[in-house]
Amino acid sequence: MRPEILFPLYAPITSLKGVGSRVAPALEKVAGPIVRDVLFLKPHSLIRRRWATTATAAENEIELIRVTIDAHEKPAKVGWPWRIRCFDEAGFITLTFFKGIGPHLAERHPKGAKRIVGGKVERFGQELRMIHPDIWAADKADIPEIEPVYPASAGLPARSVRRFALEALARAPELPEWQDPAWLARERLPTWREALAALHAPASEADLAPQARHRRRLAFDELLAHQLAMAQRKQARRAEPAEPVSAGATARRLQDALPYRLTGAQQRTLAEIGGDLASGERMTRLVQGDVGSGKTVVAMLAMADVADAGGQSALMAPTEILARQHFETLEGPLSAQGVQAVLLTGRDRGVARAEKLRALASGAARVAVGTHALFQDEVAFQALRLAVIDEQHRFGVGERQRLLDKGQATHLLSLSATPIPRTLELAAYGDLDVSRIDEKPPGRTPVATRAVPMPRLEDVARRLREAVREGAQAFWICPLVSESETTDLAAAEQRAAWLRRGIGPGVGLVHGKLPLAEKDAVMADFADGQVKVLVATTVVEVGVNVPNATIMVIEQAERFGLAQLHQLRGRVGRGRKDSSCVLLYDPPLSAIAQERLDVLRRTDDGFLLAEKDLELRGGGDALGLRQSGFPAYVFADPFAHRDLIAAAGDDARLILARDPKLENPRGRALRVLQELFDWRAEGLGGG
Q1: Which helix (H) or strand (E) holds 388?
Q2: In CA terms, which of 158, 422, 478, 536 is 20 to 30 Å from 40?
Q3: Beta-carbon-side half-sphere exposure of residue 477 (alpha carbons within 13 Å)
Q4: DSSP 207-222
Q5: Closest by CA position to 327, among listed 361, 374, 395
């Protein structure tokens, strides 16, 4: 039940003065549907105005000048601007307006009227001018010399958004203090209400920075709410008993039969999983492993232990092609040890599907591999004890939970091929135990990586044509060229057509608008060798394994982050043949882009690259973290507030150790905090 003290902030935005049916959709687009969302809007810049005359006005500065209207100059042609000629005691200035609003201006500001004008001063020859300045009455007394600028949208100017934000601030109640007083004193942080007031009244650019004290306070509040919810969730799982699973003979035989020795990192991860399974508590572990580090083999050995203990396991992958790939990896070794595995996808029909369902319901099949088909209502397990989810962030919370609910206290093992920097691991996975497979199995062929300027595109295409004639396969990745998916698709279609003219019909294309079944069909043709060159507008499926693919061309590589480039490069070098990655770039490169491409050429360590990406690109979503399951924070910046992430995690664990049910005064205040940010243990969902 939401605390009554928060009711004013959870009122709809239409309760704000001036937000009617016309304004509400635009404000909701900028902020959200409730008053709290408007309160949490952050100004992104400042307008600084200073008083001047036409003699002292500085070019490119925002000035305030007292003027007299001299004349309105109507546009000579349609599309030309409306000009207002003004003067003061020192000279003339021209105000320029586009978009056909002149007649309205002439009515409001007639010749001879005295006004104050404010805007950026430009010099056009000998003439001073302002484009679309503000105009106030001459006696206006409250023109702000410093004005925060808020996000805006079509039909809703930033100044209106600011007015709504200040009204939301006026409605924000004083809330009980949920932070540790000693921490606040040491960090010299304001109260929650003071921090919000400072957020909406910045006096300088320093007040807009993530490290401003009021912004650190709000970021820490948000991080603590999130870390507390994850710690509660972890605590609840630990309290949920699960039948212990001991190490069995099947896993040992499987390991002995492998054509290679497990790396030290794989053995360490297996020991951590084994400890979880044997503990009698429900396991919730994430295995982070770079591309090709051997995560699937580790999962298979855990499944073998579950099978020996009389239980079943399910491995769920986000696409059919990935599910088939996992099945091909697992089925042979498992069946050789007498463990039956079945593949269940949306394509299964009729008798074949019914047989698979019977095998799972009876327990004859100990392992199921599949897609979303695994959690459909008609799928029943005899004793589902372990759920393995590949690329967990690709599934919704409800989807993961539906699979887990098919067993009793089902152990959860998540696999991720997207390395996240250690400093951010707690924010993304604070409710999970994390294992890192940070070594590559022997035998992986290093991928030769080189950067080539776009003017040499024809050379790259010629070499690609020769390689394809000799039997090679290649990926060709097109960049995001604009914010328009249609434009991006057109560019990719043009590239595919251009490549077909040189290479022939064996050029396939996958893109975001392609229906899933068609996309899977093209990917399957590529895996089978029918498609020789695969052009893609989006990041090619993580984990897609085409050993014959030995060439990766990434067009305009400077537009991608390091982590993305590394993931793409990992699609090749999966067989025994020499592989290469060509990073096509538009010269000249910025210093950061140059360093990014240099780092990629020097190392193939995904964890090191993730740290470097963070260092080079900073916060926001530059790392593509949201696509990796990273939370979408309002105030917390994952780069600037890395120290606060760790502090919030420590504080959350200490709070729950002292007050597990949040019943003391600080605990009750923390419940308000969690409701304020919508970070509750149950809100995180299952799995």
Answers
A1: strand 384-390
A2: 422
A3: 28
A4: GGSTTSHHHHHHHHHH
A5: 374
- DSSP β-bridge partners for residue 118: 64, 134
Token pair 């308000």 is found at 672
> β-strand 341-344 against 82-87: which pairing, if any?
unpaired
Residues 464 and 503: beta-carbon distance below 8 Å? yes
Distance CA 346, CA 477 (A): 28
pTM of the predicted model over 0.85: no
| 512/537 Cα distance (integer angstroms) | 7
State residue 491's pLDDT score: 82
* DSSP code string of 475-493: EEEPP--SS-HHHHHHHHH
Residue 540 has pLDDT above 70, yes or no: no
Question: What residue ranges define each of the domains in the chain, with the CATH number in brackets?
Answer: 1-46+162-173 (no CATH), 50-143 (2.40.50.140), 249-437 (3.40.50.300), 447-603 (3.40.50.300)
Q: Which two tokens stand for residue 24?
A: 């509400």
Q: Reduce the DSSP state of residue 199 to 3 states and report it.
A: helix
What confidence category does residue 115 fall into, taking pLDDT thresholds of 50, 70 and 90?
very high
Query: Running DSSP on this structure, what letter comes out for residue 373?
Result: G
Within 132-287, residue ranges assigned H as helices are 158-171, 181-187, 192-199, 213-238, 249-257, 264-278
Q: What would the pLDDT profile of 500-537 be if each residue is shown by its tens digit? A: 999 999 999 988 778 877 888 888 899 889 999 999 98
- 125 has a pLDDT exceeding 90: no
